[in-house]
Write a structure and sequence with these properties.
Blueprint lengths: L6 E6 L7 H13 L4 E5 L4 H4 L9 E3 L27 E4 L5 E4 L2 H10 L4 E6 L1 H12 L3 E6 L15 H22 L2 E6 L6 H10 L3 E3 L7 H13 L5 E6 L11 E3 L7 E2 L2 H13 L3 E5 L11 H19 L5 E6 L2 E6 H4 L11 H8 L11
Parallel strand pairs: 1-2, 1-6, 6-7, 7-14, 8-10, 8-13, 9-10
Antiparallel strand pairs: 2-3, 4-5, 11-12, 14-15
């Protein structure tokens, strides 16, 4: 029989996303209202593995006062990291080489030393995979889906996505003015990794003329033809939105680099597209990379509410004796999905979804067909 819960920990891993602090607030209040103690682990699991880095302590006591007034704030008050996977922890050898070590037993011992009975891990596919591993090792774990990329299966949406799309749309709206004034082609590169949700939604919402997404390998001649056709109709400017994971037919994604213990960093495709479109069309092309701007700022009401719902549901699940699951939005309710299932595949843009059909009807070019 499981011991009653007295103390829980919250951890955020991977990239930050607007709405993280909403999860932290609602989970903290829901736990306190059940008589539980709540702590936040600094920077993923670094607060436990590397407490010497934090003079004030690797754990943050989460109280009503500590989580007051944080819902509107971007980022996460407990910090995050995309390094230090405890199941494949990078350790440098005396010869300078690196090896990956499974530190799961050590981490479980640290949880026990700190009197932590359960973990709420807030993150994307990497963090949830780690959470599933810890659950299988015996720790009570609840996963909360977090990614601006909206690429996690088994949940209708992830918090952070709405804010990212809203800000990207606002940026593209602004770029319309300068593109029109100068008669330029402006290529806007947005985040999303291997899924095109941000590019598609922001591109359609803002009225972009071409959108390149990972789900549709592209050729640039169809895009150039759209730009030339617009020129013939008197529209001397064009806006092209490119997902960072977009790739040419037969090509590969553009990678900026990869650090030890970290996923590869995508980027640079926007500049490549702009350079080639300039050659194909003879028009001046400029690139704008929105990058990490999409992660910051005040979360929208949609993301605040979704974060609050997920945080409360995570605590509710623990109170019901449930663990080893991810809370997931199955509108209009939040349901529980086994952690073992949630990272089995990535949620990419279905090419027959209504937003895609709408874009096709509006003759937005995806680099796969010549304009008519």
């Amino acid at each position: 029989m499981k011991q009653p819960i007295r103390r829980i920990a919250l951890s955020t891993g991977g990239g930050d996303a607007p709405g993280l602090n909403a999860v932290i607030r609602s989970a903290t209040l829901a736990a306190i209202n059940r008589g539980w103690d709540v702590v936040g682990i600094r920077d993923g699991f670094n607060g436990l593995f590397l407490p010497e880095l934090y003079p004030e302590g690797g754990l943050i006591q989460l109280t009503r006062e500590r989580v007051r007034g944080i819902v509107h704030q971007g980022g996460t008050i407990i910090g995050t990291t995309n390094r230090g996977n405890p199941t494949a922890y990078p350790v440098q050898q005396p010869d300078g080489s690196w090896v990956e070590v499974d530190r799961t037993p050590e981490l479980l011992a640290l949880f026990e030393q700190q009197g932590i009975d359960a973990l709420i891990t807030i993150g994307g596919d990497g963090s949830l995979t780690i959470g599933n591993h810890l659950s299988e090792a015996g720790l009570r774990v609840i996963g909360v889906p977090k990614t601006i990329d909206n690429d996690l299966e088994h949940t209708d949406a992830t918090f952070g996505f709405d804010t990212a799309v809203s800000f990207a749309t606002e940026c593209i709206d602004r770029l319309f003015a300068t593109a029109t004034s100068h008669g330029r082609v402006i290529v806007v590169e947005v985040m999303g990794r291997y899924a095109g949700w941000i590019a598609l939604n922001a591109g359609v919402a803002s009225g972009a003329h071409a959108i390149l997404i990972p789900e549709i390998p592209y050729e640039l001649e169809p895009v150039a033809a759209t730009i030339r056709q617009r020129e013939q109709r008197g529209s001397k400017f064009s806006i092209v939105v490119v997902a960072e994971g977009a790739r040419r037919v037969g090509g590969s994604v553009s990678v900026l680099g990869k650090a030890v213990g970290q996923a590869e960093r995508l980027g640079g495709v926007g500049e490549k597209v702009a350079t080639e479109l300039e050659l194909l069309t003879g028009k001046e092309a400029r690139t704008v990379v929105l990058g990490h701007l999409l992660r910051g700022g005040t979360p929208t009401a949609v993301d605040r509410l979704l974060g609050l719902r997920f945080g409360a549901a995570a605590v509710r699940a623990l109170d019901e004796g449930v663990d080893g699951i991810m809370v997931a939005l199955h509108s209009p309710t939040v349901k529980y999905v086994p952690l073992s299932e949630v990272t089995s595949r990535q949620k990419t843009v279905p090419l027959d979804c209504d937003t895609m059909l709408t874009a096709r009807d509006m003759a937005i070019n995806f680099g796969d067909a010549m304009p008519t």
